[in-house]
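Protein modeling request. Please complete all fields; requests missing the sequence field cannot be processed.
Requester role: graduate student
Desired output: 3D structure, token encoding
Chains: 1
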Amino acid sequence: MFSLKPPHRRTTHLAVAGALAVATCATLMTGSASAIVNGRDSTQSYPFMASIPESAPKHGIDEGNCGASLIAPQWVLTAAHCVKGDGLELEGIVRIGSDHRKSGGTVRKIDRTVVHPGYVPGDGTTYNRNDVALVRLDRPVSETPVRIARQAGLPGTSTRILGFGTTVDTAFAFPERLQELETRRGAASECAPGYADRTRLCTISRVPQAMACFGDSGGPQVSKGRDGRWELVGVTSGPGAPGVPCSEGPGLYSSAPAYAPWIAGTLRNERAPHAAPTESRTP
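Delivered output (283 residues):
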């Protein structure tokens, strides 16, 4: 829900659901000092981290991106508004497993996008609903996918968000190095009334004046499983309250566990022979 238009008005940011996808793929969910607004350079390798280059010339954005998570050798999970938004133009590729926005990792072409059938973009004062989409790559990759958590965890659960989004919430300033931020699962009451529920997670930063922002959309929110491995908890969707700058939080995330049945069903159907096209195929 981070707008692709110049960030001079928060209402504008919320209006373009594709903003998280760099004008429709809010991979920009950051805010002020070092990306992911007051985040820090990544401290380890995240082989499942993916980025989707895109632009929105209609809104004056020539270069942007959205985040995504590798959940299977040939599939990444992202936000619906990152692949389906007003004036959004995807470059047709996905970069997987790199801690740099424009280099490294494995690059694959986009073969197909599958948007959740219940996706409804926000209208400028409301949140995106069912803001998840799957992107099939033209070929599998060797990077290790992240597993989807069985549960999102109780309020207070420690999480971490990742992204290549803008480092300031008043402009588009994308970092080259992957950013991370320590966060926690917030209570529903910490987001605007009605924003957080079974499918939407309220996310609170553990660092002052920090949160995901424009360009971070679609990216992962992860937590440590019992075996110490990262598990996917959420998908960056937008701000957790209307009219609030990114750096002031909270953030709103689609719950990955809540959509696990749809994800599993989609991947199963796509593996079936003679599967009918589900959404769109990149030329």
